[in-house]
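> call design_seq(struct)
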């Protein structure tokens, strides 16, 4: 395990050296607010808004609009909140750690017949799941105001025991 982590850190240090690591980039000076789309098992899936409070720290909120099936019997939605702390920033990329919390909500409506009284009853079931994650990520600056992030780590979910691998990604457009 130590060899694997050391190897990853070595490769990342070479990558940041080749991409021209600097303490302060033009991207972080100009752009603080970003909108885009994220997809992840712990940061949430859907429309995203990220705000960078400083050159090191930022928060992101993700939400997917409620979805229904053709008969409006199933409603599901999801939302997530993530915090980012940048460790290293280069001219074309950044390396950071993140933590995310995700919430999923399902509502299922179905009809049930009480055959003794010949009545039709409507039943509703509610289900919610939570996920909490922690990991590392890399942000690539496609253009000065467009970034693509890839993240990986571990997630803990209320529907399972123990930690499992979590993969996340986001495409964000920074606004001036």
């Amino acid at each position: 395990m130590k060899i694997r982590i050391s190897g990853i850190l070595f490769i990342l240090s070479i990558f940041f050296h080749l991409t021209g690591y600097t303490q302060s980039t033009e991207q972080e000076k100009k752009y603080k607010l970003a909108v885009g789309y994220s997809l992840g098992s712990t940061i949430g899936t859907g429309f995203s808004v990220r705000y960078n409070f400083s050159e090191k720290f930022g928060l992101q909120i993700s939400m997917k609009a409620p979805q229904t099936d053709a008969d409006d019997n199933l409603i599901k939605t999801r939302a997530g909140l993530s915090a980012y702390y940048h460790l290293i920033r280069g001219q074309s990329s950044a390396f950071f750690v993140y933590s995310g919390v995700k919430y999923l909500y399902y509502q299922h409506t179905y009809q049930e017949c009480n055959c003794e009284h010949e009545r039709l009853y409507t039943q509703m079931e509610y289900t919610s799941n939570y996920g909490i994650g922690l990991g590392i990520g890399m942000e690539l600056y496609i253009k000065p105001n467009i970034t693509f992030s890839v993240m990986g780590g571990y997630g803990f979910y209320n529907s399972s025991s123990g930690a499992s691998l979590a993969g996340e990604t986001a495409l964000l457009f920074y606004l001036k």
